[in-house]
Amino acid sequence: MPDDKPPEIIFVIPEFINKSFDTSPEIIEKNLNFVKYYLDGQEIESETLDYEILTDGLHNLRIHASDIVGNDIENTFSFTVDNIPPEIIVKLPKNGTLVSDSLQIDFKVNDENMADSGAISVLFPDDQFFEDMTFFSYNTTKIDDGSYDLQIIAKDLAENEAIKALSFNVDHTFVQPPPVISKEKKEMPQTSLLIIISTIVIGAIVISIAVKKTRKTSTVIQS
């Protein structure tokens, strides 16, 4: 029976990887003649396919396989190398903050390759877990006086992980000042209100002009 089936290339690689990725392509063919690998247009030996030394950024791996009767197959796999963990920038709380009834949380995460959901989490000592929230208030009224730690965890699509640990102290006899909303967050509703008012005013002007034109047209027709 003639062999008219080309070799099969099996290679599963995520869109984003880091240097810990170690899966190699698999070629399935009983009568394999040769396999050639091209990384970013340059031919390489399969043994030199080392993800640890690849620079961050987009790469293309082209694999060309052929059997002894000349059946060929060629596949290209594109992937992005990212070895940089997310950057966690904490505004609140300050390390060692003293609170009585609530702990203000305010931080941001910088990373080009973050997932839309499930990439950010905040862990508290009473096993409470907050996901995809970077600005909120944590209730400490049910926690005993003492020192505690919280963890902010951020993981990008390449599985690079950053962890920020912060301590805070709870003292229920402490008179805690009311939380201060940052100027940036405070001005957001005002900006939205100005946009709405401007839209209404512009709409009223347009309607007024349209009504005047209609009346003028009616007067001309009657004349």
Describe what this molecule looks like in 3D.
The protein is α+β, with helices and mostly antiparallel strands and 223 residues long. The protein folds into two domains: 8-81, Immunoglobulins (Immunoglobulin-like, Sandwich), CATH 2.60.40.10; 87-170, Immunoglobulins (Immunoglobulin-like), CATH 2.60.40. It has one helix spanning 183-222; strands at residues 8-10, 16-17, 26-28, 32-39, 42-44, 57-67, 72-81, 87-92, 97-99, 102-110, 120-123, 129-131, 135-139, 146-155, 161-170. The strands form four sheets. It has a five-stranded mixed β-sheet with strand order 2-7-6-4-5, with no helix packed on it. A five-stranded mixed β-sheet has the order 9-15-14-11-12, with no helix packed on it. Strands 8-10-13 form a three-stranded antiparallel β-sheet, with no helix packed on it. The longest helix is centred in the last third of the chain and has 40 residues, at 183-222.
What is the element layout, followed by pairings?
Blueprint lengths: L7 E3 L5 E2 L8 E3 L3 E8 L2 E3 L12 E11 L4 E10 L5 E6 L4 E3 L2 E9 L9 E4 L5 E3 L3 E5 L6 E10 L5 E10 L12 H40 L1
Parallel strand pairs: 2-7, 9-15
Antiparallel strand pairs: 1-3, 4-5, 4-6, 6-7, 8-10, 10-13, 11-12, 11-14, 14-15
